[in-house]
Amino acid sequence: MDVIKVEGGHPVSGEVRVEGAKNSALKLMAATIMAPGVNTLTNVPNISDVHVMGKVLKRLGATIDVVDEHTLIIDTTNVSKWEAPYDLVVKMRASTAVLGPLLARFGKAIVAMPGGCNLGARKIDMHILGLEALGVQFETAHGNIHASAPNGVIGANVTLEFASVGATENLIMASVHAKGTTTIDNAAREPEIVDLANMLNEMGAKITGAGTPVIEIEGVSELHPVTHAVVGDRIEAGTFIAAAAMTGGPIRVTGFKPEHLGLVLKKYEAMGVKIEREEDGVTASAGGRLKAVDIQTLPFPGFPTDMQAQTMAMLALADGQCVITENIFENRFMFASEIARMGANIRIEGHHAIVHGVKGLSGAQVESPDLRGGAALVLSGLVAEGETTVSAIHHIERGYEHFVDKLCALGAHVWRDTVPDAADED
Ligand SMILES: CC(=O)N[C@H]1[C@@H](OP(=O)(O)OP(=O)(O)OC[C@H]2O[C@@H](n3ccc(=O)[nH]c3=O)[C@H](O)[C@@H]2O)O[C@H](CO)[C@@H](O)[C@@H]1O
Ligand SMILES: C=C(OP(=O)(O)O)C(=O)O
């Protein structure tokens, strides 16, 4: 099995450029379904989730030309199917992002029920309730959700119970061609939603308010293909900033907007991390032990859940005790038990993690519990004494392009290796 090995204790500094955001690229790819023709996406990250979304689009009838590592030409002229099948949805939950675009283009869609994942149940009831308000009817059979809008999608006011990123995106996309105007209240405000609305507006949509809690979409009859650059990945950036905070750095991280990490940077400064902001990135460094600071995850502009594990790794070594509260996913503390194998002292009580900072970590064999937890284990390995082996690295590859190479370029001693799978030896 493939693993990432890390030898701790080497200086880590220099410059790294982040890729386009996974959480935007996937939705932008899905949105090309609504603009029949040749669309070009640039700054697309070369990660496994993007490959899966490529497969979803191809199954629907699109063709994709990979011009270079970060540029995709997606021709959606001949999209003629409206089904996102189980084998792909099960690989990547974000495949459900085609629901809105398929409804907009065909007035119908079949999407396999996504089921839970290692972060929790991850239901799509809010997507369904919102779309029902727009006149979409749902039936479930044989593990598939069948959606249809027999009278077309009809503009309406929708108030989301929670500012769900995925529900906001599906509602925006489904209502682009709706009759009349749709208002989404309590909409998610993440930068990736703004990126999606910007691209749709470039295609000819009429969306206002993206990035605020109230988004208004005036239905238009058609969209035209465009060329669009994916917004920089604030979470990849945050991960390298956490690496600088743990190792001392300095690391200059470019390719993203510092305001997209507003609260993360403020919290890191409160911990003692020095952050120098520029238009397109930051330089992060730290001298000595970080201070313990409480964190709670919330929808944007709150502290992102996708930075929780990396921040827990920082706090595991900080001076003092603090509480991390996870408000988004019910099961996002699995990283805690893995970093405990390296000597961290973390107690979980419901959706709170009580972190007692320790003076050092020791390298160990650990398993990525999920995407960000896996990255956080590699960061922990950078400062642990001895060697750390991180398994289940397919999680990391879902969202980080060339993670090992980028860390090596910063001076870290990190490499991929293949080790015998214990299960195969029995
Ligand atoms: C591909 C992508 O963009 N993924 C991001 C997206 O996920 P995703 O779009 O799935 O996240 P949501 O904001 O929708 O989910 C937030 C919470 O609401 C729950 N929920 C959501 C919808 C619903 O219909 N019912 C329901 O109960 C989810 O289970 C979760 O507990 O936003 C999350 C929150 O910022 C990020 O961590 C993910 O990285
Ligand atoms: C939870 C994440 O992604 P997904 O929604 O694709 O699982 C993430 O990016 O950290």
UniProtKB/TrEMBL annotation:
Entry keyword Cell cycle: yes
Residues bearing the modification 2-(S-cysteinyl)pyruvic acid O-phosphothioketal: C117
EC number annotated for this UniProt entry: 2.5.1.7
GO BP terms: cell division; cell wall organization; peptidoglycan biosynthetic process; regulation of cell shape; UDP-N-acetylgalactosamine biosynthetic process
An annotated Gene Ontology molecular function: UDP-N-acetylglucosamine 1-carboxyvinyltransferase activity
Biological pathway: Cell wall biogenesis; peptidoglycan biosynthesis
Lineage: superkingdom: Bacteria
Reactions the enzyme catalyzes: phosphoenolpyruvate + UDP-N-acetyl-alpha-D-glucosamine = UDP-N-acetyl-3-O-(1-carboxyvinyl)-alpha-D-glucosamine + phosphate
Family (UniProt): Belongs to the EPSP synthase family. MurA subfamily.
Full protein name: UDP-N-acetylglucosamine 1-carboxyvinyltransferase
Organism field: Parolsenella catena
